[in-house]
Amino acid sequence: MKVLVTGAHGKVGRATVTALQEAGHDVTATDVARPVFDTPEPGAPRYQQADLTDAGQVYGIVRGHDVVVHCAAIPEPTQNPPEVVFGNNLMSLFHVIEASVRFGVTRVVNLSSETVPGFFFPERDFLPTYVPVDEEHPIAPQDPYALAKHFGEQLCDAAVRRSDMRCTSIRPSWVQTADNYARNLGPLLADRSLLSASLWAYIDALDLADALVLAVESDLPGHEVFYIASPDNVGGRDFAAAVHEHYGDAIELREVDRVDASGITSAKAQRMLGWTPTRSWRDHLTPEGRPLA
């Protein structure tokens, strides 16, 4: 298929472009970064610079594609003004959806976020109602990033009501790459008393890219939402014991399928997309949080 990947220079976008090419798809990459005007490296995808907050530019790049994978976004709300985060993230997806409906794109794969229920960046303390968190968990976003992602999922709902287009929203957990495991997750291993907003959930960027490829190739109707997280937690904690130790009875603990379970379950994605994660923090870090040699 002809697939457009937005945010192609981000850590998720880069991995997704590579995974889609390896799966045999014809990929166009787009981002706000300037193109390189030298001879492209062998195997490099077509690249087109575009500002997705400009509707005209979006219409120009979406036309002619079968699927759009929308990875572009300001990835968190703390380093830009709230109105910039909210406006950029919501309007970029709005333009992508509008153009996709008009030009007959068959599927939009929308990169949403684990923060939609209200985790990570609330102005007031927030705990999940139960864990592991799944797609049925109540939604209560506070910050502009999570709120825009929540509204983005509603844009996908509207798109399938008004057209024959199908949508998939992927809510990844904290995305890790080979370059940032030690910086991001190392402290949680070195000091096991440290808490994590998503209860020690994470996902490798390559496993996430595999899920996005499956979403591109899926024939699921309508709009489906999937959490994508590694099945294990950072540090291989006894999950039930850790939740009880740090939160007591404040969070309902539901059944887990392994002792070292994640705070977010991806059972739905494994069941409906056929997604099978294969990477772990153990591929990069010692149990004490040091990089593997």
Automatic annotation (TrEMBL):
SUPFAM superfamilies: NAD(P)-binding Rossmann-fold domains. Residues 3-218 form the NAD-dependent epimerase/dehydratase domain. InterPro entries: Epimerase_deHydtase, Lipid_A_modif_metabolic_enz, NAD(P)-bd_dom_sf. It holds the Pfam family Epimerase. This is NAD(P)-dependent oxidoreductase.
